[in-house]
């Protein structure tokens, strides 16, 4: 009796696209490129520049930007356009339980909320007006890429302590290095 040979299909295992990888999984070189790619996206959003012009400003190639922010860009005709949302993981600083912490977040909307939070904190520290902190109540809780929920610090006395603890750089960085 002849036995039938089964053909086993070789499944080609592809690597996870660069833009889907968590920030913590990237090498230092790729982290640097991710930061520049996100900076390029920021320039495109703020100034309405093309991908080519924005990538020239940051000194990174268009191909590298597309590799690191894949889902944020889509092609329409010959132009690369910015989508409404992006799901590119990034590392940002928040204040929680009286300390400054870097957390990895999953998307642009969360990054935007953290940016608004830092703006509110900065205005509060400049004016001392505690009612400004009420603006941050709508996004008081932030979820990171690991599913953990973080509560943003909004207690005035704790915010003053944090502000006096850290050295004042000329331009405060909300993205973690």
Describe what you observe in this structure.
It is a single chain. The protein has 177 residues and is an alpha+beta fold. It folds into two domains: 23-82, Orthogonal Bundle (Arc Repressor Mutant, subunit A), CATH 1.10.10; 90-167, no CATH class. The protein contains five helices and six strands; from the N terminus they run αααββββαββα. The protein has helices spanning 28-47, 51-58, 62-68, 108-127, 156-165, and strands spanning 73-76, 79-82, 90-96, 99-105, 141-143, 149-151. A two-stranded antiparallel sheet has the order 1-2. A two-stranded antiparallel ribbon has the order 3-4. The longest helix is centred in the first third of the chain and has 20 residues, at 28-47. The radius of gyration is 21 Å and the shape is globular. The model has no long low-confidence stretch (mean pLDDT 88).
* Bulk shape: globular
Q: Work out the helix count.
A: 5
Strand content: 15-25%
Across the major sheet, the strand order is 1-2
Number of strands: 6
* SSE run: HHHEEEEHEEH
Indicate the mean pLDDT: 88
Low-confidence stretches: none
Structural class: alpha+beta
How many domain regions? 2
| Radius of gyration using CA atoms only | 21 Å
The biggest beta sheet, please? 2 strands, antiparallel
Distance between the termini: 67 Å
Structural descriptors:
5 helices; two-stranded antiparallel sheet; 2 domains; Arc Repressor Mutant, subunit A; single chain; two-stranded antiparallel ribbon; alpha+beta; globular; 177 residues
């Amino acid at each position: 009796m002849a036995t039938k040979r089964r053909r086993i299909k070789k499944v080609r295992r592809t690597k996870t696209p660069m833009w889907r990888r968590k920030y913590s999984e990237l090498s230092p070189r790729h982290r640097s490129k991710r930061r520049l790619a996100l900076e390029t996206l920021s320039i495109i959003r703020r100034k309405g520049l093309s991908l080519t012009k924005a990538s020239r400003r940051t000194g990174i190639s268009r191909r590298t930007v597309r590799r690191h922010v894949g889902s944020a860009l889509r092609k329409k005709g010959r132009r690369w356009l910015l989508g409404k949302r992006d799901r590119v993981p990034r590392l940002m600083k928040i204040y929680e339980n009286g300390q400054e912490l870097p957390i990895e977040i999953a998307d642009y909307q969360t990054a935007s909320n953290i940016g608004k939070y830092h703006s509110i904190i900065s205005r509060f520290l400049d004016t001392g007006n505690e009612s400004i902190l009420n603006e941050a109540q709508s996004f008081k809780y932030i979820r990171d890429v690991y599913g953990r929920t973080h509560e943003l610090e909004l207690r005035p006395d704790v915010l003053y302590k944090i502000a006096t603890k850290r050295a004042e750089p000329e331009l405060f960085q909300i993205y973690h290095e």
